[in-house]
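Title: Comparing notes on inverse folding

I've been comparing how different people in this forum approach sequence design from structure. To keep things fair, I'm posting one structure and asking everyone to reply with a full sequence. Here's the target:
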């Protein structure tokens, strides 16, 4: 039941396009699972940091559409904050 409740909260955050809440929920879930605790850096933070130069190269060459999983958007080391730190203006596209 606990996993179902967490999943329902993830869906609500996703549908609301609330990337920070989505990140917070995923972060809490990963930290609560002993076998996932050490993977957060490799699964999210490290991958996000590795993607930034690739994203910059792609958008520098031509108009680009970049898609990542919702868990990669929020948080201190999320794609959004990492790109903003580089001076990019990032805005959500709201879909109704």
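Reply #1:
Here's my take.
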């Amino acid at each position: 039941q606990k996993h179902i409740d967490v999943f329902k909260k993830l869906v609500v955050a996703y549908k609301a396009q609330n990337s920070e809440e989505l990140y917070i929920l995923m972060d809490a879930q990963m930290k609560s699972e002993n076998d996932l605790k050490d993977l957060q850096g490799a699964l999210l933070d490290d991958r996000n940091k590795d993607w930034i130069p690739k994203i910059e190269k792609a958008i520098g060459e031509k108009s680009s559409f970049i898609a990542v999983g919702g868990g990669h958007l929020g948080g201190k080391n999320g794609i959004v904050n990492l790109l903003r730190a580089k001076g990019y203006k990032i805005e959500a596209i709201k879909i109704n």
